[in-house]
Amino acid sequence: MNTNQQQNQGPQLNLGNKFSFMIVLMGAGLLVLILFWSRMTVTINSGEGGVLFETFGSGVDTENTYSEGFHFIAPWNKMFIYEMRQQEVGEKMKVLSSNGLDISVELSAWYMPSYDDLGKLHQKIGQGYLNRVVRPAIRSATRSVIGRYEPEQIYSSKRDIIQEEIYAETQKILEEQYVQLNEILVRDVVLPPTIKNAIESKLKQEQEALEYKFRLQKATQEAEKIKIDALGKAKANEILSASLNDKILKDKGIEATIELAKSPNSKVIIIGGGEGGLPIILGDK
């Protein structure tokens, strides 16, 4: 092989080596992409939100909440997914009333994470926030509110007010924990049987007393109405009696006699034969 041939083959070998290197590099890149694809892509489903943890950065990204859809992230970072829809938790607990009686209360809470504060929720509380803050807040507020009322108020008249107060106190606690409370529902209140029976008996007696009072008021009103009607009629008769005299009575008697004389049933009329000079009517059909 002469010098010219060696010189011509040199560039060809260099190009071949470069091409092979590119193939290997692309293959390695493709292999890395396949191996790390699941760590480089995240799909956030409907009704969810994401919080990014940057391993070589500042840690939890507390400023941004990642919305629904497909996202690329660095393979060394991690995305934490949260349910953002309204959720429900039930609580059944025993609490003390104002007079120290045990009362069983069953209630439900509707809650959801605060979307704008999802990063802070993840950093300070974590994905177990239900058991870490939501349940304790409900229990604390329920004990506090129930402890201000007597069993009778809890069982009947104050139930709606108690529900509103539990909601207000629970909401106040959870607002500082980056959780949004939508509603508190008191589903059942169970008292000791003896207390329950005593309250129901008392409520029944109060209802009967109200019904009796209503009937008494109605009877009194009816009696008052009859009395007013009777006084009115008596007054009218008194006025009528005061306005009548002998002359008017005679005129009325004569008018009545004339009308009777026109009747086919009249037989004999004696003028001036009656008491006070009034006519006497004799006979029948």
Query: Count of DSSP E strands?
Result: 10
Helical content class: 40-55%
The termini sit apart by: 173 Å
Give me the side-by-side strand order of the main sheet. Answer: 3-2-5
Note poorly predicted spans. Answer: none
- What do the pLDDT scores average to? 78
- The helix/strand class is alpha+beta
CATH topology of the largest domain: Tetrahydropterin Synthase, Chain A
Which features would summarize this protein structure in a list?
3-stranded antiparallel β-sheet; Tetrahydropterin Synthase, Chain A; 22% strand; single chain; 285 residues; alpha+beta; 10 strands; 4 domains
What does this structure look like?
- The protein has 285 residues and is α+β, with helices and mostly antiparallel strands.
- The chain has four domains: 18-83, no CATH class; 87-191, Tetrahydropterin Synthase, Chain A, CATH 3.30.479; 198-243; 246-282, no CATH class.
- It has seven helices and ten strands.
- The strands form four sheets. The chain has a three-stranded antiparallel β-sheet. A three-stranded antiparallel β-sheet has the order 6-7-8, with helices on one face.
- The longest helix has 51 residues, at 193-243.
- It starts with a helix and ends with a strand.
Topology, please?
Blueprint: H1 3-40, E1 41-44, E2 48-54, E3 59-60, E4 69-72, E5 78-83, E6 87-96, E7 102-113, H2 118-124, H3 129-146, H4 151-157, H5 159-175, E8 179-190, H6 193-243, H7 246-261, E9 268-270, E10 280-282
Antiparallel strand pairs: 1-4, 2-3, 2-5, 6-7, 7-8, 9-10
Describe, in short, the structure shown.
With about 280 residues, the chain is of the alpha+beta class. Helix content is about 55%, strand content about 20%. It contains 7 helices and 10 strands.
